[in-house]
């Protein structure tokens, strides 16, 4: 089993660079790494003991005709083999623990980062990129830690064998000392080329994975508008491009794999040939010839480890660079101020964070000029949907801005405090797999005993406010019916009402709803507008929408045009006094949506 991280705390990673991150993985388990280095070194050096024992058996036993000496040295060879087997098992076991600990630690810090940065993630990192990081990059970065065991042992064994060969022949030792660096010089350019090719390939792979996820998520919509074949062709074209890039990476990999086998073999052949010539001239004995062959054959193992370790280091550095890029993102790492170098935004980890308002307070956004009064239901009708989304991000502190809460800059308040009291509910937010009950309670803090009423009572009230009781009635097991990721078995309107019910169950002090009824029919929308007002009575609520059914139930409406508030007032007053607002929310009289809304308003005044 992989090692468990104590107290589920992976620690604070060093994100100064990919190599610093890999070194942090090493430092998080120093005693285990030290044990792996000692065992790996003992195993590597132990490989060179057997050639020495064989040489003694040949010279002292066979050539001298001494049966007793031969028996002793043969027994020593058997004992050495058993000892090497034990060291090999312990080396492999220790290094497996080291790699698994590194994987678990990287997975923990990545998961913690994903939950921390929240809405920043889809703006900065594609879903495919995250999948690639969580899948293969974590594994490749952990593989680099093999260098701390057999890698260290390979260097020490190389030095020991060179010293032993020096005692037999300085010329042979010189060949070994010079030959191994030459091997590195031959393989080095291939490794650098591999790093460049790997970086390009992994980037394209992440982009293609993201595209495939988008296609699958929108398959039903694409089929409905006849765009499935078009997107399939585009995906196939990109896939062929990635395939060509993969062949390029594979070609470099194949040359490196071939080099790690062929070059040490050629090196062994050259040294054995030189030693055989020396044996013919009498410069070395037959036993020493056998020993040299054994030493050089043994040297192939550390040389192979060094070459393989270099290969792993290159791939691990590419993977660690991508992990570090993700870990460097901060919850406010989006938009202008941060990119222009305005400094970091305080959060819960910074002791100098400003205190949040003790009581419900007004929200103010200087960019639009909007002030959201505390305890009121405020509607915002924007002529540009992007401007409405940007406003929601600023009021929810998903971007760095000058927005204030009770006169206190939002960016100066502890982030945990903002998240606990201000909720931005997107109409298309992600639904994780689980029972409907679990999905609804995922934002409510169900462990909080201070909330009045049982979970079922509160769920029933929220479902009614979201006009979603029929969804529960239609499911075979009601609230306990399991749903898959994104709740694909539900229709778009049903999913939207489930999201609204989930947001209402959270009971935040400030609730910001982004187009919460865009996928429902007019009659359902009218019911939601009526019940939403009652459910949020006395609490600050912002509804970003252009639906007259919703806006008609608000206390105050702000008309946003070109990113600025141009008029505020009651919905009916703005219809009379602001032609732009009237055109935005009522549309053209021939528009069937407008007729639908007008009919619904009459049916549900």
From TrEMBL:
Domain ABC transporter per the UniProt entry, residue ranges: 261-587
Domain ABC transmembrane type-1: 51-315
Pfam families reported for this sequence: ABC_membrane, ABC_tran
Keyword annotations: Membrane, Transmembrane, Transmembrane helix
Top-level lineage group: Bacteria
Molecular function as annotated in GO: ABC-type oligopeptide transporter activity; ATP binding; ATP hydrolysis activity
Topological relation to the membrane, as annotated: Multi-pass membrane protein
Region (Disordered), start-end ranges: 335-367
InterPro entries: ABC1_TM_dom (IPR011527), ABC1_TM_sf (IPR036640), ABC_transporter-like_ATP-bd (IPR003439), ABC_transporter-like_CS (IPR017871), P-loop_NTPase (IPR027417), Type_1_exporter (IPR039421)
Entry's localization field: Cell membrane
Single GO cellular component term: plasma membrane
Record keyword Transmembrane present: yes
Transmembrane intervals: 37-58, 70-89, 144-165, 171-191, 255-274, 286-307
Stated name of the protein: ABC transporter
Organism listed in the record: Micromonospora acroterricola
Lineage: Bacteria, Bacillati, Actinomycetota, Actinomycetes, Micromonosporales
